[in-house]
Design brief:
This protein has about 80 residues and is mainly α. The chain has one domain. Helices cover about 75% and strands about 0% of the residues. The chain has 2 helices and no strands. Helix 1 runs antiparallel to helix 2. The longest helix is centred in the first third of the chain and has 33 residues. The chain is elongated, with a radius of gyration of 17 Å. The model has no long low-confidence stretch (mean pLDDT about 85).
């Protein structure tokens, strides 16, 4: 079993954290901007939050499953090897 250096693991978790923040904040800010332009106060903010949380959950699932598999086959869609 290959062990990763500690800094690789730390970098992966830092990337996951930044991804979570960006995936939620950016669509929410886009919803605020759209609501300001269209005058529909809660509509686009709520849609932005919903889109952001959905993207964050899906992306985090993909990154964590790749981390747990050790990077093997995650890009090719393969499952865990036995």
């Amino acid at each position: 079993m290959n062990r990763r250096p500690w800094w690789v693991t730390a970098a992966q978790f830092t990337g996951i954290g930044w991804y979570l923040a960006a995936a939620i904040v950016l669509p929410t800010l886009g919803g605020v901007w759209l609501d300001d332009r269209a005058g529909t106060t809660p509509l686009f903010v709520l849609l932005g939050i919903l889109l952001g949380v959905t993207l964050a959950l899906y992306g985090t699932y993909r990154m964590v499953s790749s981390f747990l598999m050790g990077g093997r086959g995650a890009d090719r869609g393969e499952g865990p090897r036995r």
